[in-house]
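Subject — a protein and its fold
Encoding — discrete vocabulary of local shapes:
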Amino acid sequence: MGTETRNGARSESEQGRDYGAEFTAGKTDNAYDIETLIKEYGNDVLRTAYSFVRDRDAAQDLFQEAFIKANYNLDKFRGDSSIKTWLIRITVNVCKDYLKSAYQKKVVPMTQIEEDSLRYEDDYEQIENADRDEQIRRAVNTLPDNYREVVLCIYYRDMSVADTSAALGVPEGTVKSRLSRAREVLKSKLEGRL
């Protein structure tokens, strides 16, 4: 893809290069491009996976699987959406497959329990906030898949309606209506609890 010096550093002309434009144009050198993708979008992919499975180890496995699939299919990227949206879509699909798998349904991950002592008044507020956040997370996780996916993309991944539409492969109007319905369901589930 480019020239490297003996020590492996990129030349000055490559340092300011816009690799996103190369992805859109379809010019790829998979070994180098996947590294660039991981550097640029790895955190987004990992956070998306974690928001679906709520398990750090599983999220890391799904992160790897998503990038393996992306690397394998990089030459098929058409540029209809941004590379980030394409990666998030792959991640969402990998997570859906994982959650549907028989293994996931039979194996219950063990959680680590830690006891903390309350030392300051702020600790109570932090616990209350954490409790509220946990109630919201639980309520979101009980939503039907099509509502939960939209909520995770919009609120947890800070994606736009257009990006969510592209990532999930549904029209923007469908994203808006699912989001509206999800809000109604969450409001009724959380009313009086928060």
Remarks:
- The chain has two domains: 17-108, 122-194.
- Residues 1-32, 110-119 have pLDDT under 50 and may be disordered.
- Residues 7 and 15 are 15 Å apart (CA to CA).
